[in-house]
Structures
1.
Amino acid sequence: MLDHALRILKDVFGYDAFRGNQAAIIERVAGGGDALVLMPTGGGKSLCYQVPALMREGLAVVVSPLIALMDDQVATLEELGVAAVALNSTLSIDEQREIAERIRRGQIKMLYLAPERLVQPRMLNFLQGLEIALFAIDEAHCVSQWGHDFRPEYLQLGQLAELFPQVPRIALTATADKRTREEIVQRLHLDKAERFLSSFDRPNIFYRIQPKDQPRKQLLGFLAARKGDAGIVYCLSRKKVEEVAEFLSGQGFPALAYHAGLPNELRAYHQKRFLNEEGLIMVATIAFGMGIDKPNVRFVCHLDLPKSLEAYYQETGRAGRDGLPAEAWMAYGLQDVIFLKQMLANSEGDERHKRIEQHKLDAMLALCEETRCRRQALLAYFDEVLAEPCGHCDNCSDGVETWDATEPARQALSAIYRSGQRYGVGHLVDILLGRDNEKIRAAGHQHLSVFGVGKALSEGEWRTLFRQLVARGLADVDLEGFGGLRLHESCRPLLRGEVSLHLRREPKPAQAARASSSSASQLVRVHERETWEALRSLRRKLAEEHGVPPYVIFPDATLLEMLRRQPGSLREMAEVSGVGARKLERYGRAFLEVLNGGADETPVPVADLRHELVTLARAGMTPVQIAGQLGCSERNVYSLLAEAIGNQQLTLEQALDLPETLLGEIQDAFLEGEGELPAVSEIAGQFAGQVDEAVLHCVRAALQTEFEG
Ligand code: ADP
Ligand code: ZN
């Protein structure tokens, strides 16, 4: 069974090996069992149902919540030569009728549907009259009422278990928590499903969190080293989204805005451009999210703090879906903390709910002030243990200095207390630095015992300290007033001198601005730039011709491998990961020409020709296609194929594409008499007009090897 799966993986998708749990999952589902698959974004969930779908007889039905997602998947499958369609409300009645007809005739292998459509009695009826290979339920966490993606229609999918007891079902999600998992099992009636849990680590993402100083300048600094890469910049408010998008455009970075307040058409247009064009930056609120399947998002920036680690993980997770290096970058400051706390205080909901939200925010803040490996901390929050520091986050790669902040922290807390627990950070810093100004005098604060005790630290260092005190919950923000600070009970042991406090020291600005060694733009070395751009521009041209996003033609990883391996022939091209039979046939030659600097039409030596022919046939090309690729006559191809069959380099199935009944008739004709196989000329008359003699040669060669060995 695994052999069969691997062959499909190579022939159709062009990949050499399964990743992680894929093989086990595919084996389970292809064998008719149910499965629950938890895998992070970019883990390769699609193959988990697409491969079994191709291994099993009948129609595979895929439930997906978003039209955009479906269209993308269908386009990708079509490019791979798999007959897939999406049934959705944008189709006319006639179009829908035609699709139904094609399905009935068995011409469609994969059907994508929204859940509400699948559970319509007519649709269920229709499907019950067909052979169904499997049901795949994508984004299965949408069944959870507690999550933010809840879709009531998902609740009805449970009935598939009863209506189609013989059909395997596979539910997939990138949402990891236990509660969601149990809900999926229960509501989708997946009690018999085998569970496949993957690590939720995203090893290709580099995490960096910086203190916010001059956010726009910091952002430009980050982007400067990443020109030409696609990315997302998240902001909290719609207004800020528009301002930042405009600012970036003005600075020469192509940026688009996306938020729920934009007219629908404009939003859709921006999303489409982001998917179809390369190197665009989407400045967005969190409304821009699920359904962003673009695999080559190279960075996700946060100019505002997300309100939980769940949100942070999900948003940063949109980077690097293709497995290539990607970055998560965030700037955060005290203002973020104050703002989120205010939002929380003013939000609806009961006390219990608010307490939960508060805990989530605290966990997010803890990650920001984390002095150990960020990845370890992040995964630990999701109950996953990473044994060693990752070596691939800012803390690991730059190192974190901590310092004993016990005394200054006491001074700061004391300044809060003695000034009456109602002043903001600016004023408190003025007190500590002993600044003689109007506001200080008006309040008489020049007489406080803490006035001027903090001259050993700079203004910036004090601000950082206050932020850290708030982030650690030692001080609180007065949310009704004007953001004044108050003491929190938990600071008492510190004030009494019972505990000490160690805080992370802010990195020097120069260090912070440095591009990490994993910077995505460094994927392509300088001397490769020109070829890289040429490959990308060919891809863009083909994508436009086919009306699909560029990554549907080939993902970046495949172009990059072409760049590295420099295939010189179609045979070598077929070995590039991501180049399956159909794509080899459609695009192989065009990309070869770019790589080898224009077409060279020097004739191929016969030995090479043979070798290449075998490769192409194994990759699933038909003789006609091979003839086109190799630039020789069909007759030649057939005779070389017959030879390859004779040498047992190819099986008959690999070489020919004959209807089974016809093949049976030909074989019978050869086997009719006793003793020696008849020569081709003896039976050719029977098949005149049906098949070429060359085909008969191939069949005969295959029979002969069977007899001999
Ligand atoms: P998910 O749905 O889990 O986010 P996808 O199914 O979109 O992930 O896969 C992410 C990327 O990884 C895609 O470009 C896909 O083609 C690629 N991929 C998946 N499995 C493999 C594999 N076994 N070998 C090489 N590439 C793979
Ligand atoms: Zn780390």
2.
Amino acid sequence: MQKMLNVALPKGRLGEKVYDMFEKAGFECPSIKENNRKLIFENPEKSVRYFWVKPSDVAIYVERGVADVGVAGKDILLEYTPDVYELLDLNIGKCDMAVAGKKGFVDDRNKTLTVATKFTKIAKSYYSAQGRDIDIIHLNGSIELAPILGLSDVIVDIVETGTTLKENDLEVIEKFQPISARLIANKSNFKFKSKLIEQILADLSKQIGKKDD
Ligand code: PRP
């Protein structure tokens, strides 16, 4: 029986871009372009099956092996450190992890800094490298509200265009970690399906203008 490559795609605009790259690499699955609410699409002729997954969950599917490969942001890989292979920087979904606060905010180093974020681990390691005492407030979204309402002094969050900060009278204090989408693979499935995965890796590398060795 032909081996199937199971691919976890991050649902949304980034995932659509990623699918187009996989399609160009010869793993097309036309039914995925039909606009419906299905989550699984399969093309047995090309030995490929795609799942639409919440972007922050892609690494879980890959780590557990129900997906052989997937595409996850570097932010998620740094925050959750899943036990997967990081095969390739796809050079898309680019943004930065940054500290931001109200315009003109000045850090008083004699006081504990309160930091609101979805990215607890990333924020802790950023501040511990500076020996700065912080109090983390973990939020799940709309992080920008925290300094405006006085819930925190600053936020650690993703900045892409900067529009969200600007429209809420906040500003970047420091961008400290560039983020982009990465191709990841399950470690044991990689051995079992190495031919298929190497093939896709070589083609995607070519597409983003890198050497495919
Ligand atoms: C992310 C991030 C910022 C925004 C940055 O939020 O948390 O809020 O995008 O983008 P910008 O610099 O282009 O404005 P997301 O849309 O993922 O929603 P969230 O509120 O659930 O984090």
